[in-house]
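Each field is listed here:
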Amino acid sequence: MPKVVGYFGVGASMKALSRRQKDRKLMRHPQLRESIFERIKDGWTPEQIAGSLIYENASVRVCQETIYRYVYSAEGMMDDLWWYLPEHRRKRRPRNGRLPKKPEPHPALSIANRPEIIGERIRFRH
């Protein structure tokens, strides 16, 4: 193949797909997954599990977000791991929640209800 220089979208797309096809960390390491299962079923939170892995100098570690993602994935739902979490929720709550509604102005403050003298602009501040 001749030497070519530049960006090629097809090649970049194939490279990205090959990177994406890797299994997740808890799927690649079954011993780690089983130890996390046992701890979750013993009442540990994902934050405690991730912290203990750091403290124990484990060769393979995961963060709490990885544990939460596995628990709420299809594989984790088959094992009913969500039931052992402190908040027994089947679905994960969004991080930010709902945005508060903007307050509507009071009807008495409507411009349609102002006195007619203001429309004439006779006095100062009208």
Notes: Helices lie at 9-20, 25-28, 30-41, 46-55, 64-71, 74-78, 116-120. The first helix runs from residue 9 to 20.
